[in-house]
Amino acid sequence: MSVLVITLIILAGSYFAGLLGSLTGLGGGVVIIPLLTLLLNVNIHYAIGAALISVIATSSGSAAAYVKEGITNIRLGMFLEIATTIGAMTGAMLALHIQTSVIAVVFGVILIFSALMSLKPKKEMVSQRKSIWAEKLNLNSTYPTTNGLVSYNVLNVAGGFFMMLFAGVISGLLGIGSGALKVVAMDGIMRIPFKVSTTTSNFMIGVTAAASAVVYLQRGYIDPGLSMPVVIGVLLGALTGSKILVHIQSSQWLRWVFAVIVTFLAVQMIYNGLNHKI
User: N or C: which end of the chain has fewer CB within 10 A?
Assistant: First the structure.
């Protein structure tokens, strides 16, 4: 295949990944890496590098809108970024010394987890309990609803911090935003409302990816010729997805489609990893 044909394939695949990621809220990185490695036989390190750049681009755009609306807890996000940045740089350095087949298997397992998370019912929880550390760090906040501002308290600060450290390692190791793990930390452990956890996660993903990307850039694993069509495709797909989502009454069927596609990709990644084909 010529360079032009390959570029168009990457552009089209990235557009689909961005569209699907935008409609399900889990980003396009989980589709980009299997697409590049399984379909186009791109080295997984270069695929991760391109995915990280696309994560930075998409997160920067959407995060600004959520911050403007007042949903994102900026103070909480900046505090947890300490953990995710340290974890991301650690994961990125580990990825350069771990066999690509092992990375492929781990990636497949995380994909299945992401698929299961996408099907989980979304509930808004507001805790009335209080945490000493959350009050000391001034992490409690409010978010807008149709009935006005709603106050919420942040719990289990230490548990959420260490979960974010793990999420950062996974992000740096696999080149994805690890949004599912971040949401687990904030929604499940720290007990903040789901809408706040998803928007704050989106705010954090770009910084986490940037920390990982530095390591990949230094090692020469970020190829402009590969990253450019990936970023353009994902951005256009995410933009289209955001416009479609406004007119969809229920996105549950989209999440099922996402889960099926991602599970299929996960099985392929695990199979090829175990057979050392990646």
Answer: N
